[in-house]
Amino acid sequence: MSILLSKDSRVLVQGLTGREGSFHAEQMKAYGTNLVAGVSPGKGGSTQLGIPIFDTVVDARQETGADVSGIFVPAPFAADAIMEAAAAGIGLIVCITEGIPLYDMVRARAFVTDAGVKLIGPNCPGLVTAGQAKVGIIPNHINREGAVGIVSRSGTLTYEVIQGLSQAGVGQTTSVGIGGDPILGLSFSEVLRLFKNDPATRAVVMIGEIGGSDEEAAADEVISPGFGKPVIGFISGRTAPPGKRMGHAGAIISGNTGTAASKLKALTQAGAQVCDTIEEVVAAAAAAVGQRSGAVPR
Amino acid sequence: MKFLEYQVKERFRAAGIPVPDGRLAKTPDEAALAAGALGPIAVKAQVPVGGRGKAGGIKLAKTAADAKRVTGEILGMTIKGYTVKEVWCETAQDITRELYLGLTLDRDARKPVLILSAQGGMEIEEVAETHPEAIAKLHPDPWRGPLSFEVRDLIFRAGLGPLQAQLTPLVVKLYALARSYDAITIEINPLALTQDGGLVAADGKLEIDENAMFRHKDLHGADESEEDPLEAEARRRKLTYVRLDGSIGVIGNGAGLVMNTLDLVQREGGRAANFLDIGGGAKAEVVHSALELLAGDPHVKGILINIFGGITRGDEVAHGIIEASRDLNLKLPLVVRMTGTREEEGRQLLREAGITPEATATGAARKIVELAAGR
Fold first, then answer.
1. How confident is the model at residue B227 (pLDDT cuts 50, 70, 90)?
2. Angle CA(B356)–CA(B358)–CA(B363) in degrees, nearest 5?
3. Which of A118, A144, A196, A248 is catalytic?
4. Which among A132, A297, B207, B213 counts the fewest CB atoms within 10 Å?
5. Per-residue pLDDT, B130
6. Minimal CA–CA distance to A83: which of A123, A113, A53?
7. What is the mean pLDDT of chain A?
8. B360: nearest CA in chain A?
9. Is B100 a catalytic residue?
């Protein structure tokens, strides 16, 4: 078991013929992902990496039965690509693209909600179900099958946690990067609910950062009422000054909202185990699933 | 991109939102001429930051002589790091009531939000804390925008029913303006009710989404380069950089990882001099450029590089570090923590160049704080 993505998922890539798209599609395929189609308007009928390319998502879905899409389309066209996938009935859309205009995103987000489909991202590393499938850019070699679920707003910090856990002999079910933008698809709350209902996931690591109040919402709505599994929380940006955008478009403290202190407090009060360093996160997650960090031979 | 008050008001006027008559002045004599033409005026420093009034950057002038004198005082002032180079001279308003009207993006709702308040003239965050009941909000559908009846409802909820006939078209116009400019913030504060019963935008704020600048290539906003020369230089080098007030230069890849590195430096007793994200898949030249930037900052007493190789390759980063240290004749302490793709190759290259890589991010933070102490 896992959440959102499995070896049975039929994955297409929008923007597969581009530089980023083709590089990462190859990596996804190498990980074992069932990559069935690519979409590049005007290049329909060709093949790349042995994968058929279609002009439209509708065509790709009809011909291949694709049900998940990874989007590597440049920012000015990415919101349209998200809506194209939603309109074609793709159930899970993963948008990697960074820098999408916010008004494009609020429209795309409303469109996706109306279509009743799930969106991850944008400006995210995607997701991987260990040992089964990957959509996005999380490095292949760091993942290991196991019982820890990961949900995070950061890319590289997620990789750190995955690698740390794997090196400690602690595997993962699914690792989900929800993205660093202010306007996102799935929230912490929504991903946590999926982990709550996944019997294979026995503990969850949640990596938040300054900006917005999604972490507080997750603490109040999902963790506090009784999550039933250990949640290990971590927040980056504790020392970030207010009013400065720290790399991610969404990582900014505005007035009194979005501070690390508020998020740490909400998580602690909700009963999550809050950690100060990634090393502590790894040790806590190992303990939560009944393994001692570093005790398992690599 | 941010705009100066007069630039915002030009756009308000073009969109049909009433603004006071005004003129831009770069010298006291120009301000005196403006007062001669307009009568009693407010002389307002044009800098892209709030708090101008408190800083003494806004003054009233009844006569041309007054205007000349106060403009002489305001020009050349420094407000939050910005030197005042021009003032906006506008007809003094006889204000009976100050309201607030603005639009921003509501992250939690994943939608734009229109905010209307009967309490204008102060920061809306302050009103939200002290008089939350005085704020009314409307989340327009992002596809069709606000409809008139929704706007009227907003106005009634704000307790401004008697003004609904005048206010409704104003709210609709402000929303249209925000959309056409991809504004992540647009504010009329105060929105002034004048003695004659009219509504006028007495001050305005506009900030455009950087991601949407490809749609607004012809726009010129406020000159923000004065804010910080290093931040301006970083922008030229296409590096994601934020100046902080400590002494440890920090370079890393990925926003979350760099933020975490800043936190670790502070945890170990130091303070970071900056946030610098070289992004994913950075080549040696980018690392070189980043090191060069930090080496040119006199506040930096030591540099910490923290890399997790996903798409970014350890050997590529190591080449950049080694070449930059040599080219720049770097004398500052340098600590590198590197893991992930090609970590072994990268670490080997560093060792050969006499740079000892640290095993953990925490250990690396501790070491750079030690090395930089007392320098």
1. low
2. 140
3. A248
4. A297
5. 83
6. A113
7. 94
8. A279
9. yes
How many residues comprise chain B?
Answer: 375
Predicted complex ipTM: 0.89
Put simply, whether A210 touches B (Cβ < 8 Å) is yes
Distance (Å) from the C-alpha of residue B15 to the closest C-alpha of chain A? 19
Residue, of A35 and B231, whose pLDDT is higher? A35
Number of H helices and E strands in chain B, helices first, is: 12, 18
- Omega prior to A122 cis, within 30 of 0: yes
How far, in Å, CA of B67 to CA of B83, rounded? 19
What is the distance in angstroms between the Cα of B89 and the nearest Cα belonging to chain A? 29
Residue B326 burial (CB count, 10 A): 10
A 74-133 residues with CB < 8 A to B: 75-76, 99-104, 106-107, 109-111, 125
User: How far apart are alpha carbons A213 and A205 in whole angstroms?
Assistant: 18
> Cβ-count burial of B12 within 10 angstroms (0-12 exposed, 13-18 middle, 19+ buried)?
buried
Preferred mutation among A28, A239, A279 to probe B, highest tally of B CBs within 10 A: A239
**Rounded distance between C-alpha atoms, residue B2 and residue A13, angstroms:** 37
CB pairs under 8 A between A and B: 162
Measured distance CA(B249)–CA(B375) in Å, rounded: 14
* B267 to A277: CB separation less than 8 angstroms, yes or no: yes
What would the pLDDT profile of B256-293 be if each residue is shown by its tens digit?
Answer: 999 999 999 999 999 999 999 998 777 888 999 999 99
